[in-house]
Amino acid sequence: MADLFTELTIRGVSLRNRIGVSPMCQYVADEGRANDWHFVHYGSRAVGGAGLIIVEATAVAPEGRITPWDLGLWDDGQIGPLKRITEFLRDQGSVPAIQLGHAGRKAGRSQTWLGNWRVEVSQGGWERIVAPSPVSYYPLDGAPEELTEAEISKFTDAFAGAAVRAVEAGFGIMEIHGAHGYLIHEFLSPLSNKRTDRYGGTFENRIRFLMEVIHAVRKVIPDSMPLLVRISATDWMPDEESWEPDQAVELARRMKSADVDLVDCSSGGLVPEQKIHPVPGYQTGFSERIRREAGVLTGTVGMITDPLHARQIIQAGQADLVLIGREFLRDPYFPLHAAGRLGLDSSWPDPYHKAK
Ligand SMILES: Cc1cc2nc3c(=O)[nH]c(=O)nc-3n(C[C@H](O)[C@H](O)[C@H](O)COP(=O)(O)O)c2cc1C
Q: Which of 184, 180, 167, 291 is nearest to 226 (CA)?
């Protein structure tokens, strides 16, 4: 039976356990390049025993960064510092993954701890904020510009270009960021996508950009490399005209047919008015349903902090992988501690053998 500390094999890659570090922006990169902070941050969580480490949302284009301090992979010069990190993570037994994204209408902000204000161009912000439609997330800051079809196809190419660089940087798993109200999710939801061309309107049209990105990325990564997509399974809006779980299930079926290996099930982030009441495991119903109805591997995330809870999710078949966010910020050694709590032999790294 699957358990938290049994291996998970996805396509050609095996994880030593089913605990993953959820992607978490650090907002400390230099011109999109990783630095010592990233090395120590990700490295510590590999030492701490994570099976999978998904490096934070990494922009496929400069103006696709949420902040000027996001990681990026639009330039070959950004490969080297990431390579140093992936090599260390592998040495420690973790599989390095990276989340590729574009922030769409939520781009060009300051770091969250400074208040998430719009960064002026004079302070390094972007000239243009772009989105599927001129519908704002931050009404006080004005509407984003609607992308042309030619620009949409340039972004599809940008995802593929970044994926090629990510392979070069040594990542073993690729994740596309289709959640949290960023560019891809903005196409999916009728609340942010008001287009009347082939990228808007029907379900088929709204998922088109994501499906094109999936095809483009799948084509340039090795056959043996797992492809994950993080989605928001709902906008948490009562509005019938929003993105909701039935559509997420159908999307998951399509993604599975397009050789996506695991759907990372998150939710929300599209509109500030969302009606969300987070409690431990509040998104696990989505991963369970998508896993069952779309027949695809799923990951779950959201306020999972207790090893017994994480184990129960896997044992009950609610997800194949448990992603942990903030608890990994509090405790980089979460998996080692979790193994101890579950009465398993936790293999602390040799230099830390006295910690057992
Ligand atoms: C500091 C921080 C940065 C985050 N950055 C990202 C990100 O880059 N990509 C993403 O998909 N989610 C991001 N998230 C969401 C987390 O990956 C996770 O889904 C969320 O925090 C819920 O899980 P948790 O309750 O275990 O923290 C971020 C969350 C935090 C706290």
A: 167
Q: Which amino acid is at 100?
A: L
Residue 282 designated active-site: no
Residue 356 falls inside a structural domain: no
Regarding the beta carbon of 177 and ligand 1, being less than 6 Å apart is answered yes
Domains in the chain: how many in total? 1
Q: Given ligand 1 and candidates 25, 185, 228, 304, which is best to mutate, with the most ligand atoms within 8 Å of its CB?
A: 25
How much distance in Å is there from the Cα of 178 to the middle of ligand 1?
13
- Give domain status of residue 3, yes or no: no
Pick the residue whose CA is nearest to atom 6 on ligand 1. 24
Question: d(Cα 61, Cα 77) in Å, to the nearest integer?
Answer: 14
Residue 174's H or E segment, with its range, is strand 173-178
CATH of the domain at 123: 3.20.20.70
Q: Parallel, antiparallel, or unpaired: how do β-strands 95-101 and 173-178 relate? A: parallel
What secondary structure, in 3-state letters, does 303-323 show? CCCCHHHHHHHHHCCCCCEEE
Quick check: 46 and 93 in contact, CB under 8 A?
A: yes
In a domain? residue 114:
yes
pLDDT averaged per 10 residues, the chain (length 356): 96 97 98 98 98 98 98 98 98 98 97 93 94 95 96 98 99 98 98 98 98 98 98 92 97 98 98 95 97 98 98 98 98 97 91 88
CA 355, CA 64: separation in Å to the nearest integer?
A: 42
Which one of 182, 199, 282, 352 is the catalytic residue?
182
Q: Of 284, 325, 297, which Cα lies nearest the Cα of 19?
A: 325
Q: Which domain holds residue 255?
A: 8-347
**Residue 148 C-alpha to ligand 1 middle, in angstroms?**
30
Assess if residue 352 is contained within a domain: no
Cα of 180 to ligand 1 centre, how many Å? 9
Do residues 175 and 228 touch, judged by C-beta distance below 8 A? Answer: yes
DSSP 215: H
- Residue carrying structure tokens 């701490």: 48
DSSP 217-234: HHHHS-TTS-EEEEEES-
DSSP string, 70-81: SEE-SSGGGHHH
